[in-house]
TrEMBL record:
Region forming the signal peptide: none
Keyword GTP-binding on entry: no
UniProt KW Amino-acid biosynthesis keyword: no
Protein name per the record: Heme exporter protein C
Organism, as annotated: Alteriqipengyuania abyssalis
Length: 242
């Protein structure tokens, strides 16, 4: 893990991986969405509205995966003091928030014809909305810490505490009587027909690659900003009269 603590080594790896992830992500996600919208037949019960799963499910997955990236990076910062961990957590926050917002929006669009309402205070929906608020709070806290020069441990602790919401999201449809359907994919298999499952899995792969590429690009930008600020401070100190 500490092998890529050196910024130059990390930047070299990120520079090679980013275009690969972008190309694979764009091809897989675009292909899967076109497959799902054009080639997949309507569902017997949900009709044409089933097509939204090719966006809704991947964004829901990445909304949760984004926070787990924050939590894992926060743990690396607090326990191992990894020098790039704080950057990784900050880099994942905005993409994670965007995917969570898209998940909520597509879920509402799906819910209107399926449930007859745009929104219900269902366990899954409510916990997902809380995740979006956690993202916004984390982004604001990280920016405040960076602006004021405070300890990066504060957002790291918040990132770990916020991870409590992830198993709540995952198990909410099991713990509470819910309008939201129960889990369709479990360790025991899948209840989704293969005609819908395969394009959905490819969409998840594509969106995941896009998320990873975005995180790497954000980390590179944040690292470049930190290095530029360090150079400016060093020059300012050198310019001061003795």
């Amino acid at each position: 893990m500490h092998g890529f603590a050196n910024p130059r080594r990390f930047l070299g790896l990120a520079k090679r991986l980013t275009p690969i992830l972008l190309v694979v992500g764009l091809l897989a996600s675009t292909g899967a969405i076109v497959w799902g919208l054009v080639m997949v037949p309507p569902d017997r019960l949900m009709g044409e509205t089933v097509r939204i799963i090719f966006i809704h499910v991947p964004t829901a997955w990445l909304g949760m995966a984004g926070w787990m990236t924050i939590a894992g990076s926060s743990l690396a910062l607090l326990v191992w003091r990894h020098p790039l961990a704080a950057l990784a957590a900050r880099a994942a926050a905005i993409p994670g928030a965007v995917f969570t917002a898209i998940c909520l929006a597509t879920g509402s669009i799906w819910g209107r014809p399926t449930w007859g309402t745009w929104w219900v205070w269902d366990g899954r929906l409510t916990s997902m909305l809380i995740l979006l608020f956690l993202y916004l709070a984390y982004i604001a806290l990280s920016q405040a810490v960076d602006r004021e020069g405070a300890s990066s441990r504060l957002p790291a602790i918040f990132g770990l505490v916020g991870a409590v919401n992830i198993p709540i999201i995952n198990r909410s449809v099991v713990w509470w009587n819910s309008l939201h359907q129960p889990p369709s994919i479990t360790t025991g298999g899948s209840s989704i027909d293969g005609v819908f499952l395969w394009p959905m899995l490819i969409a998840m792969l594509g969106f995941t690659c896009l998320f990873a590429a975005t995180v790497l690009m954000n980390m590179r930008a944040l690292l470049a900003q930190a290095q530029a600020e360090a150079r400016l401070r060093r020059r300012a100190m050198e310019a001061e009269p003795a």
